[in-house]
Task: structure prediction
Amino acid sequence: MKVTRPQTPSEWEAYYDLRWRVLRAPWNQPKGSEKDDMESSSYHCMVVDDDGEVAGTGRLQMNSPELAQIRYMAVDLNLHGKGIGKKIMNALEEEARSRGAKSVFLQAREIAVPFYLSCGYEIIEKTFLLYNTIQHYSMKKNL
Result:
């Protein structure tokens, strides 16, 4: 498995498809809901397997010169626990550092909080419910 960036139309399609399947489809959200207006100005990375299939995705956006935000972390549900998420986090944090960020912020689903804690993030506060079901927590890590 390797970390790369989507570049071709088919890679972008597979990248967004995994985001939708993991983060939106289970809650009956339409295709397109896995994107927002920051896509073109953000840094995207993905992990692909030996067959070129997308196994995980993540996105980094700069909220200010010193604060980066990680969004849309998604790992294929059949591949959890294989280090894919950590590979993505390392790549995104490295990119944040290269852009001058001093810290990284994210909104974690409750089920993902232990993963982010293991990556060195701290809980700031309990925040919103997505789709009236999924509790989120603001988390932050100093780089």
Summary: The beta strands are 2-4, 43-48, 54-64, 67-75, 103-109, 122-130, 134-142.
